[in-house]
């Protein structure tokens, strides 16, 4: 099987998510959204749209706490509460909830990460990436810079026979907009080169 391009988005749903969904729909591209429970609780209708348009919802915890800021029990409670909202969104969309929900911890899995015990207790793998894009910075790089970094990464991964799993952000813990991300994804998916990875 040839290498593939997978786009993932953290920290939403947020104000830029509907525009991003429009871009993905125009390109017939399905993505995974690692949602924050605190945002998902207020955006169930948007989550239903995401699911009905063929996207996948993953768990990014409830509050986006830093490694070590929560006890293991509190982090498990956040993960389980976010799982429950993801399953509820599936029911509202008229879809069967998945048996397994992908989990991506905020800030990624660090060396000597104290949250590994939570992954072990829940028997859940961690969903990583091959590239995290700087769209989370304030201010974010411009869309052309972001798209260029993604295209370079896709080319490198494809040349080495590996999938490209790109981590972007459709919001933030503060519910920020991400206009550069939306434009960068549009540039990426409108570029012929990314299709070589399909």
The oligomerization state is single chain
CATH topology (fold) name: TIM Barrel
User: Percent of residues in helical segments?
Assistant: 25-40%
Order of helices and strands: EHEHHEHHEHEH
Largest sheet entry: 5 strands, parallel
Query: So what's the overall shape?
Result: globular
Strand content: 5-15%
- Low-confidence runs (pLDDT<50, min 5 residues)? none
The assigned CATH architecture is Alpha-Beta Barrel
Number of strands: 5
Structural class based on helices, strands and sheet pairing: alpha/beta
Largest beta sheet: strand ordering:
3-2-1-5-4
Give the tally of structural domains. 1
CATH superfamily annotation: Glycoside hydrolase/deacetylase
| CATH level 1 class label | Alpha Beta
Average pLDDT, rounded to a whole number, is: 95
**How many H/I helices?**
7
Q: What is the terminal separation in angstroms? A: 9 Å
Compute the CA-based radius of gyration: 16 Å
Description:
The protein has 198 residues and is an alpha/beta fold. It has one domain (5-197): TIM Barrel (Alpha-Beta Barrel), CATH 3.20.20. It contains 7 helices and 5 strands; from the N terminus they run βαβααβααβαβα. It has a 5-stranded parallel β-sheet with strand order 3-2-1-5-4. The protein is globular. The termini are close together. The model has no long low-confidence stretch (mean pLDDT 95).
Features:
198 residues; alpha/beta
Topology record:
Layout: E1 5-10, H1 17-26, E2 32-35, H2 37-40, H3 44-52, E3 56-59, H4 72-92, H5 116-122, E4 131-132, H6 143-159, E5 164-169, H7 179-189
Parallel strand pairs: 1-2, 1-5, 2-3, 4-5
